[in-house]
Amino acid sequence: MGKVRVVIDNKQKAVKIPTGLRMLIRRCCNAVLEMEHFTDSAEISVVFVDNSQIQSLNKQYRNKDMATDVLSFPMGENGVYDTNHSTGAKILGDIVISMEKAVEQAERYGHSLEREVGYLTAHSMLHLLGYDHEKGGIEKVRMREKEEQVMTELGLPSTSSYVLDEDEE
Q1: Contact indicator for 144, 169 with CB cutoff of 8 Å
Q2: Contacts of the segment 9-12: beta carbons below 8 A, 24+ positions apart
Q3: Could you tell me which residues are beta bridge partners of residue 43?
Q4: Which candidate, 115, 105, 3, places its Cα nearest to that of 54?
Q5: pLDDT digit string (tens) for 5-55?
Q6: Which is it for the CA torsion 111, 4, 31, 37, positive or negative?
Q7: How confident is the model at residue 159 (pLDDT cuts 50, 70, 90)?
Q8: Ordered alpha helix ranges (H), 12-136
Q9: Mind listing the pLDDT tens digit for each residue in 41-67?
Q10: CA 92 to CA 83: how far, in whole Å?
Q11: Residue 8 DSSP SS3
């Protein structure tokens, strides 16, 4: 695998970012790329926001006026990505994580904030690589399996079921 650059920016003050969380996100991005046999160099942007910021983005880009846990903004389509001409890296896209939602969901599922943010990162990375669970079915199942595979690889296996009601997705 080529060089992976993960740029992480904290644009919220609601949740203190735990020590080691940025490293976990980088490890998670690398694990997904390795699992998916992505051999090129890659660039990913990760931004931490609060609920009001992600609600605004969700409304603007998805026409859903509500806070959500994570948004993915892929820069590629069908495996074709823009390239950073100075580095040669494929620009995969942006991941936006609501740290407030991550804290809420970690508490709801009874696991650590690190596990939750790692899971959201893996989920979003798969979106950046073209996976889509919105239609349900086998694609949703495959995506969930891959997310859990990465979490187990990173030593953050699931401690509870991820069965969500339709309105929670």
Answers
A1: no
A2: 9/45, 9/46, 9/47, 9/48, 10/47, 10/48, 11/47, 11/48, 11/49, 11/53, 12/48, 12/49, 12/50, 12/53, 12/99, 12/100
A3: 5, 91
A4: 105
A5: 999 999 999 999 999 999 999 999 999 999 999 999 999 999 999 999 999
A6: positive
A7: low
A8: 21-35, 51-62, 99-109, 113-128
A9: 999 999 999 999 999 999 999 999 999
A10: 9
A11: strand
Find out whether 34 and 71 touch, Cβ atoms under 8 Å: no
Strand partners, 45: 7, 94
What CATH code is assigned to 4-160? 3.40.390.30
Q: Whose structure tokens read 């904290």?
A: 10
Residues facing residue 96 across a β-bridge: 47, 71
| CA–CA dist 40, 54 (Å, integer) | 30
What are the φ/ψ torsions at residue 83 (nearest 5 degrees)? -120, 135
pTM above 0.85, yes or no: yes
Distance CA 123, CA 74 (A): 12
The two beta strands, 70-74 and 90-98, are: antiparallel
| Average of per-residue pLDDT values in the chain | 91
Name the residue ranges covered by the structural domains of the chain.
4-160
The token duo for 16 is 């203190």
Distance CA 112, CA 114 (A): 5
Cα separation, 169 vs 167, whole angstroms: 6
